[in-house]
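On clarity, I found the account of how folds are encoded harder to follow than it need be. Since the whole study asks how a given chain folds, the encoding of that fold should be made plain. For the editor and my fellow referees, an illustration may be useful. An entry of this sort, consisting of the sequence and the corresponding backbone structure tokens, reads as follows:

:::
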Amino acid sequence: MKVAVVDTGTANLASMLAALRRLGVSTELTREAARVVDAPLVVLPGVGAFGAGMGRLRECGLVDALAARVRETRPLLAVCLGLQMLTRSSEESPKVDGIGVIPCAVRRFPADVGGSRLVVPQLGWNMVEPRRDAVLLQPGHAYYANSFQLPAIPDGYSGAESVHGVRFVAALERGPILACQFHPELSGPWGHALLGRWLERGRAC
């Protein structure tokens, strides 16, 4: 089964494609809305600014196609900026609307916590703590590169959290939809196994 990877033009495209190929699946890059709608499995990667990312999706006419996949609970993996673009908005680009299928706003990490300066962006490994009802997510360490975060898991989703000064959303899941703030493709054997579980869940759908 071929995985359609949205060609966002961002830095983690090559690493995501390589990670999927290591799992034995064929991939295709696409900017076509019809393919995003019809593909059995879709990945929305992303690194960079919220406003620029949403601009690329709108230029390609992909916003409605991605929103439809989430509303219909069809297999989708969103990573880093990909997760953030599924939300309503981000403090990074206050005048830019997100896709809006996750009913929350993305916030910047605070500058300090309890009087101590917080290092932002968060770069490196952090513990992922899944909720008890999570299916795809398991405890482990994942690689992060983010200055912005989703503060809480919204209704209708399970997921996991991490702590970087404050507790924040590590990942969300709902059926075959998995949205990760961390980079599973850069998270070693733990991330490799998570991608494998998502692929299996997607194939089953």
Observations:
- The first helix runs from residue 13 to 22.
- The mean pLDDT is 95.
- DSSP finds six helices and 14 strands in the chain.
- The first strand starts at residue 3 and ends at 6.
